[in-house]
Known about the structure:
This protein has helices spanning 85-97, 124-133, 145-157, 175-185, 203-215, 237-257, 270-282, and strands at residues 26-33, 48-52, 55-57, 59-63, 69-76, 104-110, 114-121, 163-170, 217-223, 262-263, 284-289, 300-307, 313-315, 319-321. With 323 residues, it is of the alpha+beta class. The protein is globular and about 55 Å long.
Amino acid sequence: MVFFFLAGFTFAQDPDDDITVDSSVVRLNVGVVNSTGRPITNLSRSNFKIFEDGIAQDISHFEPTSAPFSVVLILDMSGSTLGFRQNIKFSASRFIDALSPDDRVSVLEFYNRVNVLNGFTTDRSKIYHSIKVSNGKKGETKTQLFRAIDLALDKLATEGSRRKAIIVLTDGADTAARDMDRNQLNKLEDSEMTGAVNPEENPLLKSALDKASKYSVTIYPLALPTNDPRKFIDPLPIQLAMYDLARERLNILATRTGGEMHKINRLEEMGVLYARVAANVRSLYTIEYQPKNVKKDGKWREIKLKLNMPDLVYTTRPGYFAQ
């Protein structure tokens, strides 16, 4: 799994202006493509209209696709990735190659613990070195995926009003979430397991989504093909159910934050998909608005956009809980 984040340590960061974020403002990272899937990067504020629960909103701030990002790159160094660490490192470096020189990157590795390899920086030599030395430990079987995401989100919260994203390469098999799923599934007959557990009803996922919404972070999971029980001979129903729940949570992390999950079918695809994610990040607009409904009632607010140009398709987070 690959994410970028720093946990439990303090590092010197590149100088940056101190910025405070108005928590009442809704911030959206928005991707726009044409009918062939090509990113459209030359739009302006006047091309967008925003609606919350069907009510038109006033755009208060607009950033073009050229505005810099703060990115957390998270590297899965658990035992399941031991056989292709070099593929991970090479592909992660390609991702860095494709970012803007002004993008600030923090690199994190995780296995049964989470390690910060560097704080946010634009110094590419530091970033490449962090990727090179990431290694985890041989034989570690625990995977602290959601702990890594949680720490990454806390780290991004310190980046003020900069645009924010997390890139995670993983098979999605978080140990704590898997144990929760197993406890529920063990109470069921084999024939009852498919679809019996709601993937969204998991406290680790809920916490990650709440923080991602609060800090306006877009998440891009790259899903590794490892540990797929369908490749086993006669897999158990509980194995299939737990794997599917883990994959669905990766997809939820992406769709609820306005990102996209990319499935890696072959390890050779990893570098290409990393470059594609970098291109997606570099083609995002950022739009802010002050909601006309100011109630903090905990209810879901649905967000929709309209573009005044034909044949364009947008991607952003579908809404938020007013908390």
